[in-house]
Amino acid sequence: MDKLIITGGAQLSGELRISGAKNAALPILAATLLSENPVTIGNIPHLHDITTTMQLLGQMGIQLTIDEKMNIEVHSSTITKYEAPYELVKTMRASILVLGPLLSRFGEAHVSLPGGCAIGSRPVDIHIDSLIKMGADIQVEAGYIHAKVKRLKGCRLVLDKVTVTGTENLLMAAVLAEGTTILENAAKEPEVSDLAHFLNAMGAKITGIDTDILTIEGVDKLDKKEIHYNIIPDRIETGTYLVAAAITRGRVKLKDTRPDTLDAVLEKLKEAGADITSGDDWIELDMHGKRPKAVTLRTAPYPAFPTDMQAQFTAMNIVAEGVGIITETVFENRFMHVQEMQRMGANIQLESNTAICTGSEKITGAPVMATDLRASASLVIAGLVAEGETLVDRIYHIDRGYDHIEEKLSQLGATIRRIPR
Ligand code: EPU
User: Fold this and answer.
1) How many beta carbons lie within 10 A of that of residue 266, not counting itself?
2) N- or C-end of the chain: fewer Cβ atoms within 10 A?
3) Distance between Cα 79 and ligand 1 center (Å)
4) What is the mean pLDDT of residues 339-352?
């Protein structure tokens, strides 16, 4: 397995281009299953999860062509089977996103249950129960969800919890259903809105985008032709590089991003002492060489502070001035990075879903590893300021969600290299 070695101490400075959003690209690629016509998706990030999604669609018989600019053209009319096998689902939970579109367009889906996960139990009960309410016959057998229906029927669905992929699956299911579906307590993450805009571009009738009530008027087919849709920029990649610059007391300008999707994150960076300026598609952060101040935050669904930025802010707090309290409310077990950071000398007290971080002047490089994507990124960030070398193992997690992370950090002046296995 590849490893990353980071030598701490460099103050980051420079400019970077932000890639397309992983968590928008995955549902949008799944949504191409709904159209009878070829569809082209642009601004696709170069990530392992994208390769897995292409494999997932490919093994169903779907034709995919990718060009050198990472535009993917999908022809779903060549589909021969309606299945997401365990071998792929176990490496990428987001494979569950094919359930809604397969069932809605072809009346049949066989999707492996995702099972446990490093950040919590992550059930998919809301996806399943809501599809049953829309008329699907669903059996869970031998680790697989087997779903059948003649045609899904629109209805009112009040979701028990705010779920991102749950909302996305139901949106995709509802666009070809008979009648109107109203999704209440829907997730309003920018990636959900991006999917909704893409579905409308293909011919769906969705209103209420960006709110927690989505109304979907079912149509017989998505028949718009010559669709070329660009994925929104990745707000979590953006936030990760902003924290990397802040922790090293540096200055960074990030281009091709969307500051309006990062309000809660930018607010906390300002509280940490960052000077932030932004335009329509860029953000500049400058610490003016100052040590960050510790911040207190609580994760929650959008537009509140994102759980996907929690680990990175924990990394900043451990070297910041003062005490910062971090509360995780979205996933029950998303503190896998804490023990690794403690091995680097961090002063963190973990009490159930709260991490109390007391900033130290100094942390020390150590061999570390993590079992999820954002935790791994936070260890790389901690390595940027640790004394000596930090060796981050199991970086396949990082490659799932960060486009060329070592090249991008090197471009900003970090001392980081990949050791191939
Ligand atoms: N939940 C249920 N039942 C369900 C669905 C969700 O109880 O049927 C619970 C979950 O266990 C969790 C909460 O609801 O406690 C929220 O989970 P959600 O369904 O929103 O998470 P997700 O859709 O599986 C997406 C992102 C995650 C991100 C979360 C929260 C994708 C592909 N994944 O996951 O991204 O953390 O939303 O914003 O969009 C990452 O990129 O590193 C990542 C983990």
Assistant:
1) 19
2) C
3) 28
4) 97
Task: Give the CA distances from residue 225 to residues 28, 129, 176, 234, in Å, rounded to whole numbers and listed in that order.
Answer: 16, 33, 17, 27
- 180-184 and 213-217 beta bridge pairing: antiparallel
Order across the sheet with 13-17: list the strands. 13-17, 251-255, 282-286, 275-278
Gap from CA of 307 to ligand 1 centroid (Å): 9
Q: What number does the ligand 1 atom closest to the CA of 187 have?
A: 20
Residue 27: asked if its preceding bond is cis (omega within 30°), the reply is no
Residue 116: is its pLDDT beyond 70? no
Residues 6+ apart with CB under 8 A from 201: 224, 227, 229
Mean pLDDT of 102-130: 90
From 322, 352, 401, 297, select the one nearest 48 (Cα to Cα): 401
Length of the chain counted residue by residue: 421
| CA–CA gap between residue 292 and residue 204 (Å, rounded) | 46
The residues, ordered by sequence, that sit 6+ positions from 129 with a Cβ below 8 Å of its Cβ are none
Residue at 377: amino acid letter: A
